[in-house]
Amino acid sequence: MFTGIVEEKGTLQTITKNGRSLVLTVGAEKILGDVHIGDSISVNGVCLTVTHFTDYHFSVDVMPETYEATNLKDLTRGSEVNLERAMHANGRFGGHFVSGHVDHVLTIEKTWRDTIAKYVKITVPTDKAKYLADKGSVTVDGTSLTVFHADETSFTLSLIPETQAATILGVKEAGDTVNIEYDVLMKYMERLLTHQSHEKQSSGVTEEKLKDLGFY
């Protein structure tokens, strides 16, 4: 579990491709201070397991499912990536609950600036727009962000200068892809309400049946 507060930007040192799987070696500093084999690290919003590390870099495997579901396959040597260690249970919780399980890859439609703010508009499938709400949370390339505006076809983010400097979103522009993870609480709520609706339908209790039994 992560918070979506990016700790540092790492640099992809090597990428080894084997069909639909990858081995990534990422150069980093801050997050390596207490790293262990088997630790979870979010790389551009994707929860990956550390398989090897030194004082200057760490390696992770990217499985076929992750290869297909994320934009990690588009990385090249020298690419910068957002990095975050798994959250501590006793630490500050500055973002929102982020699982590191990417829902899908979306494309930036356009960006523009207004004084110090950078606005990013991202096209979203209509069946996923239900997970977005004005002032709600969304994870973009591992960064916990507040939705500035949402409609049925897109959502817009407003990036403060700190986010622009501390994450790779500061340099992304129209046509670039981003890993998206919707707020897991929204998805759980949808699941709960759908399940309750199905239970009511399967119970056999309907308005017509109540009328037949004399309750109306």
Instruction: Write down the Rg.
Output: 21 Å
Kindly state the percentage of residues in helix. Answer: 10-25%
Q: Estimate the strand proportion.
A: 35-45%
Structure classification: alpha+beta
Overall shape: it is: globular
> Structurally, how many domains make up the residues?
2
Order of strands, widest sheet: 1-2-5-4-3-6
Total beta strand runs: 12
How is this structure best summarized?
This protein is an alpha+beta fold and 216 residues long. It has helices at 64-69, 161-166, 184-202, 207-212; strands spanning 8-18, 21-27, 40-43, 46-53, 57-62, 80-85, 104-114, 117-123, 137-140, 143-150, 154-159, 177-182. The longest helix is centred in the C-terminal third of the chain and has 19 residues, at 184-202.
Commentary on this structure:
The relative contact order is 0.17. The protein has helices at 64-69, 161-166, 184-202, 207-212; strands spanning 8-18, 21-27, 40-43, 46-53, 57-62, 80-85, 104-114, 117-123, 137-140, 143-150, 154-159, 177-182. It is globular. It is an alpha+beta fold. The protein has 2 domains: 8-85, Elongation Factor Tu (Ef-tu), domain 3, CATH 2.40.30.20; 104-200, Elongation Factor Tu (Ef-tu), domain 3, CATH 2.40.30. It starts with 7 loop residues before the first strand and ends with a helix. The protein has a 6-stranded antiparallel β-barrel. It has 4 helices and 12 strands; from the N terminus they run βββββαββββββαβαα. This is Riboflavin synthase. It catalyses: 2 6,7-dimethyl-8-(1-D-ribityl)lumazine + H(+) = 5-amino-6-(D-ribitylamino)uracil + riboflavin. Homotrimer.
